[in-house]
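[Automated response] Your request has been received and processed.

Submitted sequence:
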Amino acid sequence: MASIRKRHWISRHGERTAWVVDYFDQAGKRHLRSFKTRKEADNWKATALFEVKQGTHTSASASITVIDCWERWLDHCRAEGLEFGTIKQRDQHLKLHVTPFIGREKLSNLTTLHVHQFDAELRAKGRSGSMRRKVLSNLKTLLTFAQTQGLVAQNVARAIRLKNEDRHKATGPLRESVDFPSKAELRILIEKASGRWRPFLLAAIFTGMRASELRGLSWNDVDLEAGFIHVRQRADAWKKMGPPKSKCGKRDIPLAPIVVNELTRWKKKCPAGKLNLVFPNGAGNVESMSNIWKRFWSPHQIACGASEDTGKVDGESKPIFRAKYGFHMLRHAAASLFIAHLGWTPKRVQTVMGHSSIAMTFDLYGHLFEDHDADREAMKKIEAAVIAA
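Generated structure:
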């Protein structure tokens, strides 16, 4: 049962008016809810009565704020053993993006319109499209959690999709020697690599493993006799060991002879440690990505000519160069080699690369599976058919 009435009162600012929804929840408890317009009251009443009928309604007085719910969610994530990086990101989103805007809003008051306005505020404050999509994704997950806890009746953010504003910045399909090293560049990088970085580089080029997987690789998962690496764990940015990024991340990768030979030699010199890592730091512990970049990958590329002129000069008026490729680009180089020279199917590439879906494989490398010679011959046939007609 519910009714709507108009209320008048006098405040220090003069006469005020509001529309009040008078209703009973599923437990038979009476509640009042005020709105500025009759339309708002009618719309809210219809939704509230439906929720009461379903037994899922939460009154404003019994509801908690977005901040309180987010804190509960973080506690739940910690109890579930989620990765430190995931929890840290969600905590940062709460402090930097949620609290200043909708943090003190009651869950029961949230509407789809509120979420749209929240995104508009984030955009106005200079948040990038990528960041806004991440925040919205976490908000959706939060509201799903709140539903399971009986804290809110519906996920008002579920149907919202943000426009990909980065598509205009896209450069098209990944290109050899532009987006990832060419075979000629790879050869030079390999020839000039030495010491502990040589086996690391060879493994990256010929397996396509992620940097986190290489940093967390254990000798227990390397079968040199059979010529396989079994990817079963990774080291995150905080050097904490854990499972691969997804269930598809657990995979077996065949090794090229050059990798088997180099790893066999390296195993005799590899620093020992409790984790029995293949590519540890000098103390046998997990190597940081920053060290890999500063001590090897960046200076090595510059020494090999895989670099770009920054347009700046040093104290001796010599041009300053920067590395051309991020380390992840070796993963793209490996995939291109698998497709061009092994003739692997998209499904096989997906498996070895550890992609969570075949769609991801096609999004990244679909153009590499194309047969351009066959396409040119087909176009000649079309031309001949038109001319002949």
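Summary generated for your ticket: The radius of gyration is 29 Å. The chain has four domains: 2-47, 66-168, 183-327, 336-385.
If you did not submit this request, please reply to this message.
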